[in-house]
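Journal club side-thread
Mid-discussion, someone asked how the predicted structure for our own chain would compare to the paper's figures. Pasting it here so we can look after the session.
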Amino acid sequence: HENKNEFLTIRNMIKNNERSETIIKYIDKLVDNKIKDNDKIMKKTASIPEGGLRATIYSKLCLMDKLKIKYQLNISREIKTTNLINLDEDLILKICKILGVFLDNAIEAVQNLSKKAVIVDIYTIDNYLCIDITNNFQGDLNLNNMGNIKYTTKGNDHGYGLTLVNKLLEEEHDRLENEKSVNRDTFTQTLKIKLNTVS
């Protein structure tokens, strides 16, 4: 209910033609966002298709920059021509939620390590847009348990993000796929988005 009320407030602000600075200020207050715009990161993310996808990745890279987490963003050349215009808004919102959880988890996994590294790779294979999020980690990571409700390596009151991800992936099983892999001390989550072919 609280989230719904906040969205309704933002909707009314937009409907009443409030200035964008006022709306941004309100949203920043809601999420306690102290991250300033970063021109360097803005240039790096410029070739990601516009909209929520670019905004999600941009905001998480800004957070990594603030937390002094070493990050890489690798975008293949064909992404500039990748056409996401045929994906409906509902699907794009789900993609952003999933990526938000993956990036938040990667940030949390490296935050207290001496080596803090997150890599985001964006590329296409066949008719899929693929987004890999790789982070280093310490400790045990059980890939088989990751599909279980509320599985977490972070203790109590965590694991809800992956539960949400599993629910969204189930809803969009014909358009979204998730692959996970561990290579020594690195963990990779891959979100595969089936692109609509234009005939």
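Post-session note: The beta strands are 70-75, 117-125, 128-136, 176-183, 186-194.
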